Structures
1.
Amino acid sequence: MKKIGFYSLLLSCVFLFSCQEDEGLVAVSQNSNDSALESIVILKSGVEVEKRGENYFFGGDMILSPEQLRSLDETGAIAGDVTGDLERDLSLNPVTNLPINVDNLLQTRNLGIYPTSYNLWAMVRFVYDGNLTSTQKGYIKQALLELQSKTNLRFYNATGEPTKDPVYGFDYPYVNFKSIGDSDVSTSYVGRIGGKQDISLADFAFRDASYGDYGVIIHEICHAVGMLHEQSRPDRDDYVNIDWNNLTSSGKKQFDKQTTNYHYRGNYDYNSVMGYGSKTTSLSIVIDKSKPMYTKKDGSLIYQGSTVSNLDRMWINYLYLPYVARSDVYRELDAIVYDGDNRILTEQERLQLQAQLNNGNPNPPAGGRIPNEF
Ligand SMILES: [Zn+2]
């Protein structure tokens, strides 16, 4: 997510390159300023991505993993074709996010929006990077608790724990929250990509949080659990007008449509934490920051949500289950379980589901829970 608040002017210039080869990719334009080198890169598939420093970006703040970039280059989709229906994956160990049937560990699995091994619907394993202050950790904790209270997402604090499975040697997929200081963009990966992945939070994310607005932190976490930008919906032109003349080349990238391999719930949601506000002060996105980059169809402004909306919650609740951290493989559900329409399951329904998840056994073995403090 790009910074919405005060933003210092950066001198920028745009110049053209002719067919500059870069790992087989062609760079066609380059923006530079005093903090980062940016360029638009056209992939073999015709899809354009942004390169900033060593990373390739999708939609402004989503870093592409090497596997996602390769797929986008070769197929035009972030990860090949999804053949099956989207559904919760119930075969994962909730805490390690590895398949419980270890014989299948090496198989390619289609777990959700993309057919990779690591787009997972179990607990989100995370660590606090050593560079965070205790105040910053406190803000992240509040964002995590907010998501836990409103959705089926559950987080497992693995700070200081091994990052590899001690028996099988596989890297655990986990999110590393870190501070990146004064920057106009906070970043995340889309879905879980395997092993360590950063959620990089700029100062403005923490400044907003100090005023009680955890929207930026929640937005970046929602990318890591698989969500894309609301304004990328394929049907968005029925709901918003975009002022293309007020967008920089980088800004235009924020409005690419996602037309394959993605799942939306409900109508366009102006309140989504994943949708941008109409106005930004980031001159890497807009040319005239006094004007909106897009509006509702009636011309009124859109304000970015500061927490998950009801439709955001439906997306998450449809795909995730709220597991309790345990040392064994029993899949214990937390006290409150939402269905895909944000309805809380009755206790009878919850126990029924828990039994289904555990070969008919509704009763968690005693003593299996492990501490999970944030
Ligand atoms: Zn974003």
Note: The CA atoms of residues 124 and 155 lie 5 Å apart.
2.
Amino acid sequence: MSYSLYGAPDSANIIVHMVLEHLAHLVGPDELSYELKWVDWSVKEHRSDQFLSTLNPQGLVPVLVDGDQPVFETAAIVLYLADKYQKLAPLASAMPERPRFLQWLFYLSNTLHADLRVQFYPDRHVVDESAVGPLLEKTRERVAGHLSLLEDELAKNSSGPWLMGEQLTVLDFYLGILCRWSQLYPRGRALSPDVLICLPHLQALLTELEQLPAVVKVFPEHKIRAPFFNQPSPPDLSVEKVSAF
Ligand SMILES: N[C@@H](CCC(=O)N[C@@H](CS)C(=O)NCC(=O)O)C(=O)O
């Protein structure tokens, strides 16, 4: 099966990119191949009529195209892929792993990622520019609270470093990127890396993630140098090429 993945450097598509790469490694190129379709941020290609009418009416990346079916929303895409290949997620019948897995997938998507979008684009959430500073301060506090809650959850796992314990799942790729971005964007006004340094289980997960072959392969394609998750640096690209700069 061959897919097209639409996205931009260091944007939410990088989560899907890592998942595709990891799955391709597991099932082999005959079962899964993909092509990256870079969307040109500098000309707002994601807001073009063509993109809005055929790929995602929200004007957001990522979009995965499977055959002639586009799928948007990061969580939906990674769940779709995990279920299709029966890898990187507990099976639908697995108890109690599956409800726990779904709970954290929705938490990452609806709570942590949603608040990070406020952190990245605060001007979209205020009427008056003077409200941006206080909004950012409160949002960073909320994000730090979500990370601390995830740290508590990870601390309960004795079987392994991942959010589901022993089993690496799509959750870990998603969480890793959200941790990365929380410290980077918006440039100069993101969460202090010190917040993550004080969360040892989250640090351990990020360190494990850093070494996965899929991660090591994908990040350079986004012009990102290691370390990718712990005290990360932005892509070596001009500001207008990256969505949340
Ligand atoms: N809820 C969406 C959020 C995706 C998202 O925030 N994409 C960003 C890039 S990281 C984007 O396309 N931003 C463009 C914009 O907001 O105008 C998802 O999970 O796919």
Note: Strands lie at 2-7, 33-38, 63-66, 69-72.
3.
Amino acid sequence: MKLRVLGCSGGIGQGLHTSSYMIDDDILLDAGTGVGDLSLQEMHQLKHIFITHSHMDHVLSIPLLVDTLFSDLQDQPLLVYARAETIKTLKEHIFNWQLWPDFTELPSKENPSLKLIEMNPGDVVSVGERHIEMVDVNHTVPASAYIVESASRVFAYSGDTTTNDNLWDRLNQYSGLDFMIVETAFSEEEIELARLAKHYCPSLLAQDLKKLKHKTRIGVSHLKPGDEEHIFKQCCNEVNNEHELCHLASDDHFQI
Ligand SMILES: [Zn+2]
Ligand SMILES: [Zn+2]
């Protein structure tokens, strides 16, 4: 499968976009600001969006995307998968006719342009040959990681999380792990903030990576703008060659 990084930053700025990753040409994992860099033609190919949690940096492009694609979504709605709590937040706070029109009722309830589909941790949704499993993680709101398996290749995306056992236990049940994207939002100096906001910092990430039995290549994401080099260097020191770390950037392409 192909993976393209649309956004992997903890914020915005020139060349920096928030979390969104494209699998092949038709699937998004999260829909942060990076979606806005796609051409119209590329946007029209998107059919499935898997959301990790309700925070704005991960969902911001959904309302704009469905509006942009509206005339083409009459026969085949955009399918957004998320856990029940995330769907409730999207409906109450975005698609409420106040912040944005409710596209789950447009152009009609019977024939909507957007479908919000409930998915629970442990569920697997298959899109063609790609099998996408939702895994519970540990953040300030109900949040998930996704594990994508295709043709015996396995890719995992942590979403936002801090210390947990569940993601690593589940990954250990797969026979291999070919690539992973994991967040490290804060530097070591901000470990208390990382604990409060339920994100990783380099030492918390390194402690959790010891739970992973697969040696793999890991893309580090969600770094605070302006502090990227510093946080990434701390990650390399803490992880200490146990895994190959790479510093992700917008428009990176990977063949997994
Ligand atoms: Zn978050
Ligand atoms: Zn985030």
Note: The longest helix spans residues 228-239.
4.
Amino acid sequence: MTCDSNPCRIFVLRDQKILVDMSTQPPAIPMQGTAEDMGLCLADGYHLGSRDGLDCHAFSVPSRTDSPRGMDFLGLRKLFGVLDPGQYAMAVRAFAVLNWDRTCQFCSACGSRLKRHAVILAKECDACGFIMFPRISPAVIVLVERDDKALLARSSRFTENLYSVLAGFAEPGEALENVVRREIREEVGIEVKDIRYFGSQPWPYPDSLMIAFTASWAAGEIAVDNDEITEARWFTAADLPKIPDKVSIARWLIDWFIEKHRKEYK
Ligand SMILES: [Zn+2]
């Protein structure tokens, strides 16, 4: 039994893909009953919360599990813009919770096996009382403007001829504004000002929280670190290179920049 008598949606993860009912239009996360009736063995689920009046539960199934007929296991990138936004947001949460559950098994203070906390989303150690919460790794992502141009860079991690905005993880004890200044300075050697919050995006591969900012150039000329960044340039909105697809907040930042300058190059 996964839910009480209320109807609920079940988020079933196999490896890093989630079960989607492809027989509906648009495709949807299955309701309780549809997936279970098709022979999936669901146990030890997490209650994710409720959405649109439906309770949502997340379950992991083994790698060998076959897709029920009319359903498919798909990754989050493929589901962006396909699933209803509310279901997509809950799918992101399902990934984050189940990835944490899989990788957080033992107490980091004493090494004993952890058990789930009875009330909150956490695990606790019976041996020493330590409580471990889901890990979230904050990273900033920044669009820097200079006059009518935006700074885009090629990362050594990119496999194709793709340019994006700069990003980097926060370090312990570091304010986000400082992460913005430090990352930009380290990667391309310039100073920024007018740092403004733009928005955020959780990205559960495995546990990132992307926190986006805009900023203005203040001083310095581009000098790439040749480690994380291999090339960086200033681009106008009318002359952009290949940029990330619409699933990421990197693209939302660049789209904001394009929209801002749309009138100028029409
Ligand atoms: Zn312990």
Note: Residues 13 and 143 are 34 Å apart (CA to CA).
